[in-house]
Specification:
Elements lengths: L1 E8 L1 H19 L5 E6 L2 H17 L5 E4 L11 H6 L17 E9 L3 H13 L4 E9 L11 E5 L6 E6 L1 H4 L3 E8 L4
Parallel strand pairs: 2-3, 2-4, 4-5, 5-6
Antiparallel strand pairs: 1-8, 7-8
Length: 188
């Protein structure tokens, strides 16, 4: 088996995608009234923070943002109650970000099966009752297992199941880059 890696988005492409998404969010929501950005840990948090900064530049006003740990709500865990019992309960951070009756824009780095987003929606419902939930992703690679569709997409990247999409961000990886790893010769 051999692996080939190709860069799909560099720092400039990521910055442009975030700028476009910021404008799309402002247009769709007619501003930022009652909007909250929520990033899914880990890289979704950094993307949500960058998006909040872009929106503040454009609008001249800050938009609240927070982060969400969906670990306790994943369906590959034994149960939500068990995860919470083990002290793995999520919640919003900063704690003063309320989602109740807000337009919540979830942000994740890669959308694949949709199971992480389902877990995030469950976690958000635990935090309050949003007016609506919208989804923004930097890369949509397809292969959904649940009926989940993003409202804002940085880049559509059709993939095979043997390929991987890797998002690297300055905050966690020292560079901004989206790459695809093509695993040649892997049997599925």
């Amino acid at each position: 088996m051999s692996n080939e890696t190709h860069v799909l988005m560099d720092e400039i492409a990521i910055r442009r995608a975030l700028t476009r998404i910021a404008h799309e969010i402002l247009e769709k929501n007619k501003g930022i009234d009652d909007c909250v950005l929520v990033g899914i840990r880990t890289r979704g948090v950094h993307l949500a923070q960058r998006l909040a900064e872009k929106i503040a530049e454009i609008e001249g006003a800050p938009i609240p943002w927070g982060e969400l740990d969906v670990t306790a709500y994943r369906d590959d865990r034994n149960s939500v109650a068990e995860a919470k019992g083990n002290g793995k309960e999520l919640l919003m951070n900063p704690a003063d970000v309320s989602v109740h009756d807000k337009k919540v824009i979830l942000f994740d780095d890669v959308l694949y099966t949709g199971r992480t987003i389902r877990a995030a929606m469950d976690a958000l419902m635990h935090c309050g009752r949003p007016q609506m939930i919208q989804l923004a992703v930097l890369a949509d690679r397809g292969h959904r297992e649940l009926p989940i569709r993003p409202d804002y997409i940085g880049k559509n990247i059709p993939t095979s199941k043997s390929e991987e999409i890797v998002v690297a961000l300055q905050e966690t990886d020292g560079k901004d880059e989206v790459t695809i790893i093509q695993n040649r010769g892997e049997q599925l």
